């Protein structure tokens, strides 16, 4: 954000994008009940929301910023499970199932988080059908993202194939232009490497390969995908 300033929204009723969020689009009485049990936090990049295998103590509604979700192996290597965007509910599956958190969640950018204790959140769901339905919608989005990550890692025979499959996923969210499908490329090469199970150097080299084949090009933060069909052949999709 310009000047690194964040606009804090203390009252969810005043949020201008509430109706666009899968969980937050709640009837006024339910939203007022949510207001009474949530705590608003402004967090810096690098702040840890919860850790893998930790007892699920709360759910967190991400109001702004991005959150990296990752798992760690015994060797210390990290595998990114996804990047949560504003509007997502974090820790939901662990709280609902009374199991430890599946991943570690770390703020990628400065942002606002509304935190609700696990017991209070479960009571909110039991007393408000709308909240339960929206929680299910939020959980389904997380499930879809996880499925895409499983496909990315499990169905691709090579790192180039995995990168191609990732770009195909991004193209579905992009915008068609005369130059090709334009996507906003927000992930660093280090993040992509962790998602693809490889190194940053390999990701950099493979991007160069795809550019040399004129399948993609980049202009600043914008990435243009020129030939989705060719990427599908590489990915084996």
Question: Which key phrases capture this entry?
Answer:
237 residues; alpha+beta; Jelly Rolls; Arc Repressor Mutant, subunit A; 2 domains; 4-stranded antiparallel β-sheet; 8 helices; 12 strands
Summarize the structure.
This protein is of the alpha+beta class and 237 residues long. The protein is built from eight helices and twelve strands.
Description:
By secondary structure, the protein is α+β, with helices and mostly antiparallel strands. The protein folds into 2 domains: 153 residues, Sandwich (Jelly Rolls), CATH 2.60.120; 77 residues, Orthogonal Bundle (Arc Repressor Mutant, subunit A), CATH 1.10.10.10. The protein is 41% helix and 24% strand. The chain has 8 helices and 12 strands. A hairpin with a 2-residue loop joins strand 11 and strand 12.
